[in-house]
Structures are given as structure tokens and as C-alpha cells.
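Incident log, support desk, overnight shift.

02:14 A customer reports that sequence design results differ from what the structure should imply. Their input is reproduced verbatim below. On-call engineer (initials T.W.) acknowledged and began investigating.
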């Protein structure tokens, strides 16, 4: 009798956890459930469908010159392209692994004026959802940001332009891992439909 009672309790707990999990998925990704997206998700740390992960690279002193920028972009395999910004492309894919924009609005670079161009900094970003491994893209962007900042004598800043701490870096990884987990879960749910 006691084991039957424990079984009922465990079943109830699992049922509630499952309902709560579906509720969270529906709040975070309403379009998966055929609903119109009308307002932002309540969870500010969750990656939304159009989330962008940023790393700002700001000159320590003065400005970054156009010629230095072009040299460093070429060295780290970033190609000038769509939207007049730089992109790290992967073999056989048109979707960039990550991109680099000007920190100053409107964010683009005028190729014809790059020889006389100066900027206080640049912004590396990757946009989710990805058609490939988002964590790999984040790692590649992080490595490139470290190398580029070293070459340009610049500092790394987060999306709020505060120094990029190791805790913030881990938080970015955690956000991407959660995003990937949610996508994998949604794919499993889709298999059952």
C-alpha cells in the first residue's frame, strides 16, 4: 500500500513537472505552439528566437584606424560583405558563423572610406537561431575577439559596454547551452507529432 502511494505521488510530481515544462516552452517559443508572438518573453535571461550575443571591442586609447581594422579582419578570416560589415563564413554555408559591425551607428563600414576611417570600437555578434552548432560559433567568436583585441590594443566589453568578466563569458555560454537544449527538446517533441 505504501509503495502504491509513493507511485501515485511520483506520477503526480512528474505530471506537474511536465505541464510546467510545456508551459515554459510555450512562453519562450510560442510560435512552436502555433501562437502569434505579441509580447516579449518574461524571462530576461532566456534566449529569444532572434537573440543576438555581443562582444564589444573598444580601443584602450584613441581610435581604431581603417587600415588596422582591415588588416586584422583579413588576418582572422573575416570578409567584408552583406550589410557592409565583416563576416566569418564557413565552408559551404551562406550563414555567417559571426559578424563584426562598427560600434558607432549605423554600424556599417564604408569600404571606399576605410583608408581614412576611424572608430572607437567594433562589435562582434552572432545571431540565433543557428543552422549549425551555436556553442561552436560562440567559441570561435570569443577566440577571434581575444585575438583582435590584442592586435588592436583594445578591451573586451559585454553588451552593456562593461568589462567582459569570466562570469559574463560563462553566462553567455550558459545562455547558448540553454538555447541548444530547448531546440533539441523541441525537435524531440516534433518527432512525436
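02:41 Re-run completed on a clean worker. Output:
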Amino acid at each position: 500500500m505504501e509503495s502504491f502511494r509513493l507511485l501515485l505521488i511520483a506520477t503526480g510530481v512528474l505530471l506537474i513537472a511536465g505541464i510546467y515544462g510545456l508551459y515554459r516552452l510555450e512562453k519562450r517559443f510560442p510560435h512552436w505552439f502555433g501562437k502569434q508572438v505579441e509580447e516579449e518573453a518574461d524571462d530576461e535571461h532566456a534566449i529569444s528566437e532572434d537573440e543576438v550575443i555581443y562582444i564589444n571591442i573598444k580601443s584602450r586609447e584613441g581610435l581604431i584606424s581603417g587600415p588596422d581594422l582591415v588588416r586584422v579582419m583579413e588576418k582572422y578570416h573575416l570578409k567584408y560583405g552583406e550589410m557592409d560589415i565583416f563576416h566569418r563564413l564557413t565552408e559551404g554555408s551562406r550563414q555567417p558563423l559571426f559578424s563584426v559591425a562598427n560600434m558607432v551607428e549605423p554600424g556599417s563600414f564604408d569600404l571606399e572610406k576605410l583608408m581614412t576611417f576611424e572608430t572607437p570600437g567594433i562589435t562582434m555578434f552572432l545571431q540565433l537561431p543557428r543552422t549549425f552548432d551555436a556553442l561552436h560559433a560562440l567559441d570561435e567568436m570569443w577566440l577571434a575577439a581575444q585575438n583582435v583585441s590584442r592586435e588592436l590594443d583594445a578591451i573586451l566589453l559585454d553588451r552593456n559596454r562593461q568589462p567582459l568578466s569570466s562570469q559574463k563569458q560563462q553566462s553567455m555560454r550558459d545562455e547558448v547551452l540553454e538555447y541548444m537544449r530547448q531546440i533539441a527538446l523541441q525537435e524531440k517533441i516534433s518527432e512525436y507529432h
